[in-house]
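Proteins fold reproducibly. Look at a concrete instance:
___
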Amino acid sequence: MKKYWESSITFEEYFNTGKQRLENPENEKDKEYKPYYELGVQRMERALSKFSADEEQLRILKSKNFDGKILIISEPWCGDASATVPAVVKFFEGNNDVKIFLRDSDTSLIDQFQTNGTQSIPKIIILDKEFNVINSWGPRPQYGHDLLLKFKADPEAYPREQFYNDLQVYYAKNRGKDAIQEILELL
């Protein structure tokens, strides 16, 4: 894990990568993903401006005496990530080191943390001081996962557009609190 950590970036670099790919696409994939980068940057800006750490969750973090690191596998175009990553970064800021590994730069890391055979992101990897994996979380909180299952169970009754809308409304209202709570339970 240490080699992945060393080739990871800060949240500021991650956010700037999203803006850079939006403003100056480097390849066809960046051009194709332009609407997703645009939404991702907007959602991250909103998440950053609205996030406020929950005092009870901070107390729980302190009580855990967690002295490890948080490694996030993500991409700036990802809808789930744009809501979760800023909140997780801001929550752990000042308590634990947090870095982000760009999934598409080297898929060998996400391949170790697949979700039902997919490279779903974001994935939060909880590491100890020696870079050993303690646990992992992701790609979305339980409520978001339940919405996904509802969509997959009956896409005609619960169409994709409604699922996406419900998920983003949930993320906007919840502001990362559920994700952080679930991550705290894994420490």
Remarks:
- The two ends are 17 Å apart (CA to CA).
- The longest helix spans residues 34-50.
- The chain has a mean pLDDT of 97.
- The beta strands are 69-74, 97-102, 123-127, 133-137.
